[in-house]
């Protein structure tokens, strides 16, 4: 007897053998069924070798209780093969233990005498199911066969691929048995039709899970002399009955759901179609994913000849799928959609669908099969691992990458199998309970610290898949142009061309030349490029113009290739490489700015010297004024100021592109208005700082420290409203005031010379973009003097001011020069733009008349007015004039309206109840969208424009910037028309009739 407080030797031995509840195990070993062998070391060692010794012992006791004799126990102790198989199953699967407790005689299925017992196929499984005549007996026979598969699996007799193939063969035999039962129940229906069952998905690919939907497609034809319509109806009844036999729950549970939703038109289409109907659908209506699904099609049951005819008819169409427009984008978009539909709480535990999961491997392999299987029949396998091996053998995938993916796929599928085997439930989620994780780890051979080892291996393999699955497409393209080791397979030139075309490259020959120039050779630079380019090529392919992205990358690399920090930045700083890829492939403006000073690529990094966050006006002005102070003469000073402007324009454009495209580290900016405000504020601040530096340079060169007259620059239009775009001119007014004792004429001459010199210096041809100064909003327009004194402005506005000038002054804001003079100018114009008495009816009618005339006269001939962002209905002009009319009418009473910014004034009008929240939101959405389109046009084309581009690739690039994927340009234009049409309705109500 064990002394109180001391543990028995049995308790200690049980702990040593891996039992987690030794006390319960001791009690089970004391049970009558095991009393004769409870101290047998062979039994304890065998139990300790299982995934869950506690579970195995419990299952063994239940099975022995159900037996009623010693045959099983004696055999277990005497025969090691049976002992390992039986206890292995009982320690891995509570569901199969339940089955054995209900059907204790089925343990004989684990006794294997013949070599064919170790590797059964469809024929052997059909023999195992032969006596099943109804759904219940079919389930019992199915589980009996499953026992043998699980036993070979957990004992290591079969590997992952062999186990998955056996499960698919058992499914094939089960479908045949179920169809036979259905035919026996309806002989009249069976007589008038031919029915073929085509396995799809993992069953078709010969790689099935323990518990999975079995995907099928049905093909029906009339038997000789039968009516086709009657035959299809009969085939539909047989198919439906067959599905129910497998799927419905009985006293023995269900087998698995039979899913026919991969058929043409999905669940909305007929369950059974004739072969000609299938062919017509796939020729005319099928989507890319449907051809991808057909990769795994395999006839498994019913009329074998009809099944082969189905394959022969559709297989040629499968290998033409890669020629479809937007093929790669469609496949990748479907993969992203799958990930987006995973609940956030589950995504990190998703073995199948999560990032780095099984679906990533399968999608990558299938995409490469579709691209290259057209010309290489060796790739046409429905089994993922076989296809991956063939891709590596043909040089379509790097051998090292293929080995890593093969290892990862086998490990993740083995995890999935063991998780499902426990309860025989369909799941792809890694459990959270520690006991479940321990069983799972031990079942995979991880015995020292099962939970920690499992987690480490799982994360290692998913990390490898995430790293490799997109790179798979691009690394072999480099091998095709690089010097490879002898005997290493490579893509042929034609295969490389096919892949580049499929990935969206319009000029594959040039792309291959660029890759060769970048990646060939044995230098450290070429080695780093070979590491970077597979990922960069994927990012380029995600844009509307991959060719431009690659060409621009070559140009930047040629300019900076010998600079030690350049490739190190791209290799070591996570954000830099993806940011650069997005910027180089998004259009012409940002690459053009970068090419003029390639060292600005450092801004794309995430280190201390980089960063895309906009700098404040004060910071910019300080830097520019310091550069001006160091310069030798005005030309050199303004050149330095324009250089800062170019760099900061690039920073702003890059931040805008990255925010619009999104990256792995930074998702797409959800608030489109925030991107508009970012660009408008940054470009306006930069323009103001540039003007301030230019003014300082001109004054210093011509007059030293002090100009004879005080001088200020007043921003107008979008400049004053902090809403400049990339291609906007700087609308300004110039105001001066003679210093004490200075003659008026002398002061005016000095002010005019300043303006003339500023405009000249900012437009000198150079590598930097010019800054055009537009003073046409001054009194008397182009006919009036460029510069006026403050007194002259006061006299003019008092006597001659027109309504449009008061409206234009709503945007007036000092931006450079004498701050006190600027403040006094604002005080002068405030009564004009915010009249105390509001606007009279005549003034309102005049504004409306002017607006109507502008709409009819200024829209360019040949352009679609509905797509003109500035003057079209619901465009910028409509929204701005509506807001400005509210400002003129109510600005004196509502403080919030006294702002130069359109969106801020709109928000203030809404807060003051001058328009409804809904109408304000409609106007704001239209204004933001039109502004985004203008910014996109400038980024894409490198020159300003108010309408959507007509060239297809440019239009697609605008769409990509606005968040529309490949093939959705029409949706973009429809959405623009719909948004602006709603805005025009509001404008008509508020501006013309309000």
Basic shape: elongated
Span between N and C termini?
100 Å
Residues in β-strands, percent: 5-15%
Mean pLDDT: 90
| C-alpha Rg (nearest Å) | 38 Å
User: What percentage of residues falls in helices of 4 or more residues?
Assistant: 55-70%
Largest sheet: 5 strands, mixed
Describe it for me?
The protein has 994 residues and is mainly alpha-helical. It is built from 45 helices and ten strands. Strands 1, 2, 3, 4 and 5 form a five-stranded mixed β-sheet that branches. Strands 6, 7, 8, 9 and 10 form a five-stranded mixed β-sheet that branches. Helix 4 packs across helix 6 (80-92). The termini are far apart. The model is unreliable at 1-6 (pLDDT under 50).
Secondary structure layout:
Elements: H1 9-16, H2 22-29, H3 41-48, H4 53-67, H5 71-78, H6 80-92, H7 94-102, H8 115-118, H9 122-128, H10 135-154, H11 160-185, H12 187-192, E1 193-199, H13 201-204, E2 214-222, H14 228-247, E3 258-259, E4 272-273, H15 275-284, H16 288-294, E5 298-302, H17 304-318, H18 327-340, H19 358-372, H20 384-393, H21 399-423, H22 434-443, H23 450-468, H24 475-479, H25 493-502, H26 508-519, H27 524-541, H28 546-560, H29 564-572, H30 574-584, H31 589-596, H32 617-630, H33 634-661, H34 672-703, E6 709-715, H35 717-720, E7 730-738, H36 744-761, E8 773-774, E9 787-789, H37 790-799, H38 803-808, E10 813-817, H39 819-833, H40 841-858, H41 876-890, H42 902-911, H43 917-941, H44 952-961, H45 969-992
Parallel strand pairs: 2-3, 2-4, 7-8, 7-9
Antiparallel strand pairs: 1-2, 1-5, 6-7, 6-10
Helix pairs in contact: 1-2, 2-4, 4-6, 4-7, 5-6, 6-10, 9-11, 10-11, 11-14, 15-17, 18-19, 19-20, 20-21, 21-23, 22-23, 25-26, 26-28, 27-28, 27-30, 28-30, 29-30, 30-33, 31-33, 32-33, 32-34, 33-34, 34-36, 34-43, 41-42, 41-45, 42-43, 43-44, 43-45
